[in-house]
Amino acid sequence: MNSVTQFLYNILxxxxxxxxxxGVSIIIFTFLMRMICMPFDYKSRKGMRKMSAxxxxxxxxxxxxxxxxxxxxxxxxxxxxxxxxxxxSGCLPMLLTWPLMIAMFAAMRAIANEQLxxxxxRYLAGEDNxxxxxxxxxxVKNIWMTDSLFTPIAPNASALQVITQDVWQRAYDLLNDAQxxxxxxxLAGQALDFSSSAAVKASVEAMTNALxxxxxxxAAVEPVSGWSGLNFFLFTxxxxxxxxxxxxxxxxxxxxxxxxxxxxxxxxxxxTAQPSNGQGxxxxxxxxxxxxxxxxxxxxxxxxGFAVYWxxxxxxxxxxxxxxxxxxxxKDEQKAKSVTGEGSVK
Length: 346
Fold this sequence. Notes:
By secondary structure, the protein is mainly α. The protein has 14 helices and two strands, in the order H-H-H-H-H-H-H-H-H-H-E-E-H-H-H-H.
């Protein structure tokens, strides 16, 4: 992990050390990240609002000089200078937050993979209550697995295979001597090696085979009879006896995205800021359906912790949008009153 990702990782782990539940920790962590990004959101919203205000004038210029591209661009630049508007003011502030968002995703993925690796080690060490209270959240039994009826509560082979070499090594270093001895015993004396990609592949394969012989683990990943490997459209699904969730967070992700897209004041400003043509309207309609479907897909293919972040972040961004828009509207109203007062005869 780079320094920024490690820093965010430490923050999330530190929050959990205080509250003792990763679901609650992710919600708090998401609030903190959104507060950090709020000044950039404000700048972006301010620029978008300015653009929506001058868009009617741009539309008039387009009608007047639409056949003369060079003249239109010249008049457009003059209008921008006159209105004091920078075309980058709407998107540049948001782009500046992307490195932070990427680092945050990496930190969440790192801690999720580390927790799954630790759970696999605890099963191999013969421990009971492998999935602790810190890993449970609401209806989700293991927050590091997908909130789905088609995902077991324990890390299965597909979840273990995507864990990277450095994460395996870091998780193994956290084990005590008693745990390591019990693991080696369950592996019939085979030592684990995470020094290279090939060694990791061999070690994960050995652990996966050994896990199947542990009753508590086998029960946690046991499918419902007759419901294993079913073809469902483009997916192959398995219904588990000890399923991890009820698909609520992926559904919430889609619903909150629909509500944000429909009622978010920023979306209205963006629609106003777009040129009044069929192509712009078609793109807006496409986004209304694309983003909710994309949200559901992300949360169906990620762990429940990520889904908690996604739903929380969408709700917080929606609330921020409403607050910022009302604040900017109030400022515009005060500015308009001030101009009117200055121009009146006293």
